[in-house]
Amino acid sequence: MDLIEKILSNKTPLKSDIVRLLSLPAPTDVEKLRKTAFDLTTRVMGNNVYLRGIVEFSNICNLNCFYCGIRKDNTEVERYSLSTEEIVECAVWAASSGYGSCVLQSGERRDEYFVKFVEDCIRKIKEKTRSDILPNGLGITLSLGEQNPETYKRFFNAGAHRYLIRIETSNAELFAKLHPEKQLFKDRKESLNLLKSIGFQVGTGVMIGIPNQTLEDLADDILFFADNDIDMIGMGPYIVHPQSPIFNKGMMNKKELLQLSLNMIAVTRLVLKDVNIAATTALQAIAPDGREQGILYGANIVMPNLTPKNARKNYQLYEGKPCINETRNECKICLKNRIESVGRKVGFNQWGDSKHFTKRTY
Ligand code: SAH
Fold first, then answer.
1. Residue 226: which of 188, 269, 261 has the closest Cα?
2. pLDDT confidence of 135, banded at 50, 70, 90?
3. Atom 6, ligand 1: residue with shortest CA distance
């Protein structure tokens, strides 16, 4: 049996086998991996790619992650917060464009004003987007970092049904090198359990190519997703930000980083099978067709940017974020073409929930 078949047939694949697949170089050796992942995606998840319009509604952040461009101590970023009306307007536009779902993302804040603000936005989005086409309104995913259990419950009761919180790396020692002392790996992990127990579809992910990260670490990341019964995966290449403390540690060269990121998507698909996997924007920051390639390697979700143009330039988590000069209309046309160019269809007006979640909660 070859390595790919072995991974597909094993309930808990061997870490050493995952490492071997992750290190396959482009392009000929990797083609079988890519094609197997792509075909498996079509078979298990269908031919649709689902859209989640993302609104990066505020870059105000109280945390100081060493890799991130909008960390609290970066005084060179102009801080902004969109108003409730602006956020709701973005969501209504997404619904009327057939996107089916949106993601609300921001820097991390836990104060009552912020929590109430988000709760209010969720309720208003739901109210304004219910229609014959979307009877339950626009699907809402949150990406607001660590919150307390009460807050997660409030967001869920207001109508959000998915939550993304990346573990960043499953190697606790490496995690500690990337974050200030009071930001703990165990808290981030605990959030995944809390969110699941409340009823959210839970997404996590990692950065790929972090300084000092090994292929073994990445293999462990995939096994972590499996062990923690994760419903959705959003992972992307680590890209340096010039105003971050780990800038001088550099990053992988873009060609190798792209291939490694694509291999991560493909192997994650082979191991987890029925989860939603996003072709993230960071892929496009290292290759113009990065997101299409992500789809060709087994991703089935894309997150078009809905953030108003004048705010986008201030939401740069990493250097060279793409589409910062494009309007949402331009993004809409461009994405549909990109998705169809790789033989997929856009799942307009559908939530496109994770099949893994449906099975897990059945
Ligand atoms: N504050 C929220 C959401 C915003 S950050 C949270 O922490 O969950 C969203 C993601 O951007 C992070 O989880 C991280 O994986 C990614 N990110 C931040 N800086 C990055 C960088 N320099 N390169 C690549 N991805 C980065």
1. 269
2. very high
3. 145
User: Is residue 347 lining ligand 1, measured as CB closer than 6 Å?
Assistant: no
Ligand 1 atom 10, closest CA:
166
Q: What is the DSSP string of 284-335?
A: HHHSTTHHHHHHHTT--EE--B-S-HHHHTT--SSTT-TTTT--HHHHHHHH
User: What's residue 27's pLDDT?
Assistant: 62
CB of 224 within 6 A of ligand 1: the answer is no
At residue 258, φ and ψ (nearest 5 deg) are: -60, -50
- Give residue-wise pLDDT tens across range 1-57: 688 999 998 778 999 999 999 998 766 679 999 999 999 999 999 999 999 999 999
Interatomic CA distance for residues 269 and 276, integer angstroms? 9
Task: Name the residue with the closest Cα to ligand 1, atom 8.
Answer: 145
Please say whether the beta carbons of 49 and 301 come within 8 A: yes
pLDDT tops 70 at residue 103: yes
Would the CB of 241 count as within 6 Å of ligand 1? yes
Q: Which positions ≥6 away from 358 have C-beta within 8 Å?
A: none
Residue 146 CA to residue 143 CA, distance in Å, equals: 9
Which atom number of ligand 1 is nearest to the Cα of residue 241? Answer: 22
Q: Phi and psi (nearest 5°) for 346? A: -85, 130
What pTM does this model have? 0.97
166 lines ligand 1 (CB under 6 A): yes
Contacts of 230 (CB under 8 A, 6+ apart): 192, 202, 203, 204, 272, 275, 356
Q: Please tell me the distance from the alpha carbon of residue 133 to that of residue 187, in angstroms, as a whole number.
A: 39
Give the ligand 1 atom nearest the CA of 166: 13
Q: Which of 137, 144, 90, 93 is nearest to 117 (CA)?
A: 144
How many Å separate Cα 308 from the centre of its chain?
Answer: 20
Q: Is 143 in the pocket of ligand 1 (CB under 6 A)?
A: yes
